[in-house]
Design goal:
2 copies of one chain form a homodimer. Chain A is of the alpha+beta class. Helices cover about 35% and strands about 25% of the residues of chain A. In chain A, the strands form 2 sheets. The first copy, chain A, has a 7-stranded mixed β-sheet, with helices on both faces. Chain A has a 6-stranded mixed β-sheet with strand order 1-2-3-6-4-5. The first copy, chain A, starts with 16 loop residues before the first helix and ends with a helix.
């Protein structure tokens, strides 16, 4: 009945995710004095006092971000909250509250939702976070979770994506590619199981990568360590869609380039093990750059903080910030410069689809 | 592969929405001193200073909350934001920022999303609200919108659901049942159109109820009027799932009862007109009590504010607060007391399904 007369129809897949967001949000400018940090960052920072409120969100859609064949509901509840909290952690803030909304189909029982909330409860206990909101609605198909995480940070410590300066050091927490490696194992076992329902999946020796995919943790430990050591990063972002996407995002928002040294990218043995399982065509560094779902922090610090940062066993210095015209590149051990490319969306999504 | 051994399977439809939320959130207690108002309210109030940050959310799922056959995308964007903002307005706060997340299937074009964001832009301009976050992901089917609204209010003015006292006056903004009346018209015309695609829908004389459903407005005017007149309600909630559900919710959270006078419930002529169109079985008061989607405020004030409130043309005094053991009742013009019943979920959802 609504007649849509639209001469031009552009497929949403034809723009990358980042380009599409940029197009949709073009011209929106912040006017309120309580808006401290907004569009282009992992979360919003708002408020009028010295301590700012930081608000971040995460949405998880069944069939896109998770597959109920192999996702324990407790882990799913935990993970949805962890992803939202990771977005405020990436602003150098610590979580205080979460609000959870679910769209749920009648396929799910009350007991299934009990399980989901057991995971949310476990997260809240572990990270001293209060559940302050819960809403439910129906869904035509499957389960969608939307989590809003609220945290706080001193204004002087809040870190957005846009402050990296030339010669800053580029640092990363944890390791990269392991969550995607976990997803590959789960998808492989699922495919085998479909062919033979008597099949018993074999997850031995893959515990680490499976946990990385199914139950990620927000890096509040890094935020606390940085505060304890009096370091304020110049820029920071959550690595959600691969290291390449995160590095390019920091560079774009900070109007700079970066050089990442391939041999400095932290890759767990478990990830390499999965790659060798899958054959020679799969390189661990490709998973690290493009895998997604790592839920780690990528951030830049001033060179003057080098001595402090090198003492932290949980942070790796993987490169440095350069002039914008150099672009975002990775330097191989053979000294070849490779231009980083963003997949624009998480390959994990594609894989689950 | 994940073996779910669950001896008891309870259908989620067997508990009402409110009872299910209560079950899932049982035992969650707030521990952070920055948590001011949490579970059981329309939004969260957080922060350490005198001015608190208020955070509310809303989720809209295609096929449940909206039907693309008759929903203009601009209106949809506007409405999704209006619903989230209404939840913070119901805490007696004013909106400052919004964050939007979309899960979108490939059926939607870039131009369709442009339309959606034109509606969001219009809302932001009208309500001086900054868009501070935007995220996109894929969806298996249809469109899901999740909006987080952020606002602020002085700690002394923030109003939750739990403060109503016996003898307080029960007040309401706007009118009730009209949004649901609008939905009935849209569904009727859709059904006729399906039977005869040459059919031209007739919306004449129903403009008001259609606008109430398709493009609701948050009642920031009421929040401002209350502040200008130095009135702090003792309790307040957003009427999202019908007046009965809202009244029962206030009573439950405030441990009180209420009496609503049927002839005092504001019902627009347009709503009555729809009811007479649909036949004698449909009573305007039923739509007001159970219709849902009205997006109006229900609140209680101290009797000492009576003189001030009766001067406001946009607020109706519809009843008063009683002892808890009286329950939540409606008194008819014939002086019959009818116990209010909550549908537990929006009938609008059921109708769209």
């Amino acid at each position: 009945m609504t007649v849509q007369e639209n001469p031009k129809i552009t497929d949403i897949g034809s723009l990358g995710k980042n380009a599409l967001i940029q197009r949709l949000t073009e011209g929106f400018t912040a006017k309120n004095k309580s808006t401290v940090i907004g569009l282009g960052n992992d979360a919003s920072a708002v408020g009028q006092g010295k301590t700012k409120t930081v608000v971040g969100t995460a949405m998880m859609v069944e069939g896109i971000h998770f597959d109920m064949t192999y996702t324990p509901l407790q882990h799913l509840g935990y993970k949805a909250v962890a992803l939202a909290v990771s977005n405020i952690v990436a602003m150098n803030a610590l979580p205080r509250q979460i609000m959870v909304s679910l769209a749920v189909s009648s396929r799910y029982s009350v007991e299934a939702l009990d399980e989901l909330f057991a995971g949310i409860r476990r997260f809240c206990q572990r990270y001293d976070t209060d559940l302050t909101g819960c809403d439910l609605c129906s869904s035509v198909a499957g389960l969608t979770l939307s989590v809003t995480a609220i945290g706080e940070a001193d204004k002087a410590r809040i870190t957005g994506c846009g402050g990296a300066k030339v010669h800053d050091l580029l640092c990363a927490s944890g390791d990269f590619g392991s969550a995607y490696a976990g997803l590959l194992i789960l998808e492989r076992e699922k495919a085998t199981y479909k062919g033979n329902p008597q099949f018993q999946p074999d997850f031995s020796s893959h515990e680490y990568v499976l946990e990385r995919f199914l139950k990620p943790e927000p890096r509040t430990d890094i935020v606390k360590w940085l505060a304890d050591n009096d370091i304020v990063p110049t820029s920071m972002t959550n690595v959600a869609d691969g290291l390449a996407d995160a590095a390019m995002h920091l560079c774009q928002e900070s109007h700079c380039g970066c050089e990442i040294y391939e041999e400095r990218i932290p890759i767990d043995y478990g990830t390499s093990h999965v790659c060798s399982d899958f054959g020679t065509n799969m390189l661990p560094v490709s998973l690290a750059l493009n895998g997604g779902m790592d839920n780690e922090l990528l951030f830049s610090i001033s060179q003057s903080d080098y001595e402090k940062i090198k003492a932290c066993p949980n942070i790796a210095i993987i490169g440095h910030i350069t002039e914008q015209n150099r672009g975002a590149i990775m330097v191989t051990p053979q000294n070849t410069a490779i231009q980083l490319k963003s997949q624009g969306r998480s390959p994990a999504e594609t894989a689950v689809q």
